[in-house]
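WARN retry 2 of 3 for item q-0093 after timeout on previous attempt; input resubmitted unchanged.
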Amino acid sequence: MKKYIVLAAMIAAALPGVASAGMPEDVKSINDNWAHISYQMNGSSHQTTALDQLAHQADVIVARYPGQAEPLLWQGIVVSEQANRANIFHKLSLATRARDILARAYSLNPRAGNGGAAMSLGVLYYKVPGSPIGFGDDARARQLLQQALALDPNGLDANYFWGDFLYDQGDKAGAKAALLKALRAPHDPNRTVWDAGRRGEVQALLKKIG
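OK item q-0093 returned
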């Protein structure tokens, strides 16, 4: 509960009426809060409530920097996380909203987030069911994930999601190679919570592959 109260205070600091520290710092605040919710917060109800507050923070920051891809990218990531944790009745509508936000970020700057816009959009395309249920498209996902990998060939995220996609496609050998490469990515001292959390996900998927 203490962590939840601290997070709520951090999010409140980014709401209207408070001076902005600048776009890089504002975007990083979304990034850091998302990592805390995803990897450190316990209790699905607390995570859901915190994500709702973080989505509001992201809306404020997007409005603060109109026409900028980076805030949109992180807004889309937060909404994607909401979709991931939502009940079956809300998953698709949230995933569709995330896709539209990320597509806008991608159209503004395909290289946004060092390939993060392409990668996050690609993840949605292979995670969401295809027609007639949803908009999923494995071919589009492959294209976007390869673009992200080209922009960040040694990156932790780019290789993790490429590996996860290959595993989803039944290519265990390719997935394992990508995941091992992900673990060789340099550690990020500015995003320690994300860095540790993502590496844990890589290890878990490697264990699943065997």
